[in-house]
């Protein structure tokens, strides 16, 4: 029976209960947490610095949790399983590599962010300081395009799963899911999203570990790695993978796997560089821990798509040997439903409930990061920059809250348009690299290379994007004979478009800059001013003073934090403390070497010999891979769950004592 003809395993009321009920409960819990933070800690969510950048004070564990959570959206869970379902064991591996490399390399870039633009709030702000309005608008465009596509991906994946499992109207889910998220994000700001990230990811990893134990240790249908490998050998005889060695699902010698490896890496680079969410986390973290947090975050995140691909994607394919397993159409597979049907079959109703919770948690956690990131872009780079240059901290926060709600409605509307047009989660994944990869070199070099000039930055990011779109459309027509939704998602069309984007962006930005080097003075970005945290009063002669009598600086946009008493700005200590450039430079070099070593291992040392050899995994070898998967998942759980508690134990204990003291 086809999935579309099967009745949903859960009643529709469960879908609304989770989307509305659980969303409201969690929103209330996060608001209580925000209230406790405001009442018993020095961090106040009504401060612009706290709301948009968490006062730049977050420790390693909480940043790791935020990175893992923000990168673990429905696409991660569903598409990684889909890749393994379609091309075998290499699919989940290459999906994980594509994301991990980009997060890990951000550990290198994050060091330069702290060195060269510690006072920045968004990456377009730095573009304005270096390249003026043209550069600012170009980078802002890249950021908003990326956030729009990512938000739609998150909602489409979540909506498809909720609808399949409960029969809930998918369009209703697309609008109701972001509303609950907007409630706690608008109240608590960036720190609230980090706290929610840690909470969501704890349950997410617990559910994923349970799925893996059930599949490999308990299930009557599978129950062991050996049994799964036997079923995959059987299904390869009836449904072999075109381009894989012997058509096997247990080999790295895979032509579609190799093509997808390049696509995944290009898409990951474009997403991480253009998504303000990652820059927000780099800015929000303590300078001493930024690079370490991003590296550990990437390392921990690898385990999630690797596990989803190995445990859920391969299981879905193996279960096709069972006569009562649902028939998955190409639309079902593209929507990411292979993993959903595998869990339903193995675990029954309990599996359906847990999968619903898993996807809901990933959607709300990732969407919260997108909301705060986009609201930061809109409030700082649109409202404050072009409409209200003298905006105060309170005005910035109020505007950010409005934009959070606006983005929830906009994302739901855009996802609905995509749904109506027949565009699925898989389609958007392949398109993401085409639309964003042109910004990789211009944005990264803005923080890394003093000779990047305005022409290179603008041409690389914008012209590179248009060239990629042209090549994408032309290749779809050449391969498919016409331009349709289906031909545009062709692997070769997406590959050509993504490769054009990243190559043209790099060639244009570097070549134009070499012809006329900018020789930029980093002191200009190191001395960026920040939003004032006190109200400004105008006296009769036009001069401006803060509420405590500090004269306003001559800058017409903002008042420099240097002019304010330390008590008026929670972030002042971190902003004003003299950064040790020698230490940051050593950190940059150290993590450059560490990143290079990691990249060499996961892209060359492990997969290349496996792909070069005409080898199908033996049951024992496959069992070893499963063992590594479990160890990696448990280590990720330690980094995301235990480490934040250990690092914040004194602050948590202090808050508990204050609450108890006030109560009794």
From TrEMBL:
Cellular component terms (Gene Ontology): plasma membrane
Membrane-topology annotation of the record: Multi-pass membrane protein
UniProt main location, coarse: membrane
Single GO MF annotation: urea transmembrane transporter activity
Keywords: Membrane, Transmembrane, Transmembrane helix
Localization: Membrane
Superkingdom, taxonomy of origin: Eukaryota
Alphabetical list of Pfam families matching this protein: SSF
TM segment ranges: 13-36, 57-73, 93-110, 139-165, 171-190, 202-222, 257-274, 294-316, 353-380, 401-421, 427-449, 456-475, 495-515, 591-615, 621-646
InterPro entries per UniProt: DUR, Na/Glc_symporter_sf, Na/solute_symporter
Classification via NCBIfam families: sss (TIGR00813)
Membership in a protein family: Belongs to the sodium:solute symporter (SSF) (TC 2.A.21) family.
Annotated protein name in UniProt: Urea transporter
